[in-house]
Amino acid sequence: MSPAILSKTFQLVVCVVALIAVFCCSARAGNAPSTLKRSGKAPTRLSWQDIELLRLYDSRSALSRDYLLQQISRCTEALRSNSNDSRAYHARGLAYWRLEDTKKASQDLEKVVALTPAQSPEFLYGILAECYSDEGNFDAAIRTLTRGMKSGRMLGELCLRRAQAYCQIKKYREALSDADRVVALNPGRVFPLALRAKINLNAGNYEKSVSDYSQCLKKEPGNERLYAERAQAYARLGKKSLADADRKMRDSLIWDISK
To answer: What are the structural domains, with CATH classification, of the chain?
Structure first.
């Protein structure tokens, strides 16, 4: 999945937590503004890596290819001076991620985790796992998400992503366990419920799939994809009339959108 189609919720969480994390990391490094340190000195500017990290994490912002290549060059130069500069690896990894070079992105982000395991933010694990998933390495994605979940923060988002990865390798029992957890953590969100419905559909739990899709449609009655997928569950249960009704509803919604 490219950065452009990350969930809106994940984008907002990333942006807010990135700001907090950058200030916290700067504080640990002794670079925090004096108002945070209560020293009475003039505020110290954030490093250029910190500033670029905020821009790179905000996947809603449009960053040109030239800008991203410039950041990669700048970080590479910094790493020549200090091969253990975790923030340079962090910024370069994110620039590669924004360029959809997942191989180089994962190498740099793994370096960040290795250098600063206690300080690596949870959303970094989400992006690293996304890189592995895009490469088709779902086992590595699952291991990465499991590491990120240990802190207990951003648990819902990371658990949701792990459920998707388990589903990709047809480990439906594990996928459903994670999906159940995410639904319990986010009872008002449609996407986790729709994901569980899809997993149940793939696992052959058609009655449960229909139940979850029906709950989703109460909240999003205009979502044609949900009707299409519930139609598949009805069809596999042998309920042809209900499947046909859902397909008809899906077609009418698509027709309305295309007008």
So the answer is: 188-259 (1.25.40.10)
